[in-house]
Amino acid sequence: MFPKKNVVDLLFSSLTAVASFSIIIFIIGILVVLVRESSLALGKFGLVNFLTSTTWNPVTQIFGAATTIYGTFVTTALALLFAIPTAVGIAIFITEIAPNFLKGPIGIAIELLAAIPSIIYGMWGLFTLAPIMSKYVEPALQSTVGKLPFLGFLFKGNPLGIDLLTASVILGIMIIPFTASIARDAFNLTPAVIKESAYAIGATRWEVVKNVVLPYSKLGVFGGAALSLGRALGETMAVAFVLGNNHKIATSLLDAASTITVSLANEFTEADSDMYLSSLYYLALVLFVMSFIILAISKFFLLKAERKYSR
Description:
Blueprint: H1 4-37, H2 39-45, H3 48-52, E1 56-57, E2 62-63, H4 66-97, H5 100-115, H6 118-143, H7 164-188, H8 192-200, H9 205-234, H10 237-243, H11 260-267, H12 274-310
């Protein structure tokens, strides 16, 4: 008979192992369902033709994912472009600049921002941000940046506020809290003695942040950006309100477009044929694999950097 202590340890180890392996089972289960449900479209359109075709026509039953993949990459890239510098700035202010009485309230506000449901962001984007973008921001961009060579084509068209730019801004605001929180925690791990040594030899606050805090914490910041990347790839409702769900390759940031998640959210209830429904599942499978590959690459570089700096 086992001692009571060993029985408890064995039970505890078993429960944690089951919890851990259940994640792998869930992932495999999702993949199996997506492959099975998309088999009809997979057999008709193949892989290369589906990924490169810009046609999405439920009437003729011809479906391709190129327009939605393009929209997903553009909105995600722009959102990261907006969010990462802002989030790093917030984290630097909280950890290095703000007085102690402000650090708590700002930190709590950032965490509350992450807890707001995405549909609230979408409604705010549609009724508040989109009118502001269409009346003030986008006309101003057209009259300034839009007149520059090589960049002007990005701001052509009628500024309606329902477009790639507004959707990217909404997405950027949504992912700021994730990057900011992780960057703040990473900055807080910088040993105080190193920063105090830098100040002792006459370094300014900017020099301490640039030469001590950021190099010491860059892996944490990169990890926060990778988490935000995954969040941006899968975001649905907030983007659906302000993107327009237009299946075309938009060359202007002021054009309506579509992402994979927006197409899935808007069209699943409209799918009136087996091929249409199977094509939507195929889109979901593409997003699943795409997210897995991108996050795996991010994790690979993160581990590689950790090994490099731990030597």
